[in-house]
Specification:
The complex is a heterodimer. Chain A contains five helices and 15 strands. Chain A is mainly beta. Chain A has a single domain, classed as monomeric porin ompg (Porin, Beta Barrel). A twelve-stranded antiparallel β-barrel of chain A has the order 4-5-6-7-8-9-10-11-12-13-14-15. Helices cover 14% and strands 49% of the residues of chain B. Chain B has one helix and seven strands, in the order αβββββββ. In chain B, strands 1, 2, 3, 4, 5 and 6 form a six-stranded mixed sheet that branches. The two termini of chain B are 19 Å apart. Classes of the chains: A mainly beta, B mainly beta. The interface between A and B is large, with 76 and 59 residues. Strand 3 of chain A pairs antiparallel with strand 7 of chain B, so a sheet runs across the interface.
């Protein structure tokens, strides 16, 4: 019995010695500690931008802006500059700037100032960015001279936009009024867009919009007086406001942190109030660009 | 006047280039893998392997479990890669686990060496990470007017 209890005690001691893990301690306080810094970063464009960061890029390639004005040819695009900045409340995206009055993860309301694109189409032949390329395109139909004295100014619009993010989609509704005293009109838009991350390097952004344009705005850009028309009989005044519909895709395939293939395409269906104008010769317009983007 | 043909050609070209680039990024099965000096038969696992601190220099005090496994028996010693002296040694070991309490402000790398040949059998790192949440805002995607 004595032997048995001694054996059991010995076995128990041995078992506890094996079962109990050996404890080791490491204490090391370095003057220059080696620590990994973790940031949320991605080589592809994401739907977010870091606060305080400027993003500047230039794309080189080929594209066209199809003119909607009679006798003004399509414009070739060889480069596309882009700049964006997001501060605590302020933001700048190319020609659009804004100030966020309220912002949470899903919902935000912005004061927005943006360039009116009708003015860009009308001024396309002397728009600075394109003229800077030194390319003066030939007339679409050289036998027909352009209407004399059709002068329109570019306008800048200011207003509010409310955005809501739901189930991966971004919904935006906005109202923007002329703040440059050019036509005293307004635009209201509704946009649905979505980002698709196809692979680690490839993303696609799809956007569909309906843009309501006021009668004053349409009358200024697309209405013509008897003096402006080649034949005074064909003067035009839109009798109501109109709605343009547009669809666009923007896709990028990142090759590195700086370089990416880029494809942009946008189709805009013009409202009847625009297409009825005697200075318009199309029912829709396409803009596209394909090239290599370098982000600084 | 309308360049519909060119648009569709560009779209096709873009998809083809993207597809080629995606295929090109896959691992090449014929590539000769570089020889790793560490013995593949042995493994050293630290659990947990990461400690997140607020700032560089902050101390992480934690209890770790280190597990060494091997297909063969070895006389092993576990080293902190920065020290010449072993932390722990044992003979004829195939699988062993032990506790390590750490109080460090820097990542540490542990080595399991064969005590006879001095070959490194396995390595593992307990890394200190500083997580710096970056404030971000949702992009509005207004584009460039006509684009």
């Amino acid at each position: 019995m004595k032997h048995l209890s001694f054996t059991l005690t010995l076995l128990f001691s041995a078992w506890t010695a094996v079962a109990e893990p050996t404890e080791i301690s490491i204490e090391a306080i370095d003057e220059k500690p080696s620590v990994n810094e973790k940031h949320n970063s991605s080589v592809i464009e994401t739907s977010e931008q870091e606060v305080g960061e400027w993003k500047v890029s230039i794309s080189l390639g080929y594209g066209q802006v199809e003119s909607i004005i009679s006798n003004v040819d399509d414009y070739d695009l060889y480069f596309l500059p882009r700049v964006s900045y997001y501060g605590e409340n302020f933001f700048l995206e190319n020609t659009t700037m804004g100030y966020s009055l309220y912002e949470d993860e899903r919902f935000y309301i912005d004061l927005v100032g943006r360039l009116n694109e009708d003015g860009i189409y009308v001024k396309l032949d002397d728009f600075g960015v394109f003229s800077a390329l030194g390319v003066q395109p030939p007339l679409r139909n050289p036998r027909m001279p352009p209407p004399p004295d059709v002068e329109r100014d570019i306008s800048y619009l200011g207003g509010f936009a409310a955005n809501y993010h739901l189930s991966g989609f971004d919904f935006r509704a906005g109202y923007y009024h002329d703040v440059t005293d050019v036509h005293y009109g307004y635009e209201a838009d509704f946009t649905v867009s979505r980002n698709f991350i196809l692979t680690d390097n490839w993303f696609l952004h799809i956007n569909a919009s309906a843009i309501h344009k006021s009668k004053k705005l349409l009358n200024y850009y697309y209405g013509t007086t008897a003096r402006e028309s080649v034949n005074p009989f064909f003067s035009y005044q839109p009798d109501s406001s109109g709605i343009n519909y547009s669809f666009s895709i923007n896709s990028e395939y990142a090759l590195s942190n700086n370089w990416a293939w880029q494809l942009l395409f946008k189709r805009t269906m013009l409202s009847d109030e625009i297409t009825d104008s005697n200075i318009i010769d199309t029912t829709h317009t396409d803009t596209y660009f394909f090239g290599m983007k370098y982000t600084f | 006047m309308k360049k519909q043909g060119l648009t569709s050609h560009l779209l096709t070209l873009y998809i083809l280039l993207g597809g080629c680039a995606a295929y090109g990024h896959q691992d090449n099965p014929w590539k000769i893998q570089p020889k790793d000096e560490v013995n593949k038969d042995a493994k050293l696992v630290i659990n947990p392997s990461i400690c997140v601190v607020k700032e560089v220099g902050d101390i992480c005090q934690q209890q770790l479990t280190v597990l060494f496994t091997s297909k063969q028996y070895h006389d092993i010693c576990i080293y902190n890669a920065k020290d010449a002296e072993p932390l722990w040694c044992d003979g004829k070991v195939k699988e062993v686990s032990f506790e390590v309490s750490v109080k460090v402000n820097s990542s540490i790398k542990l080595l399991a060496r064969d005590n006879i040949t001095q070959n490194v059998l396995a390595t593992s790192t307990f890394s200190l990470n500083v997580f710096q949440p970056v404030k971000k805002r949702v992009r509005r995607n207004y584009g460039i007017g006509i684009l």
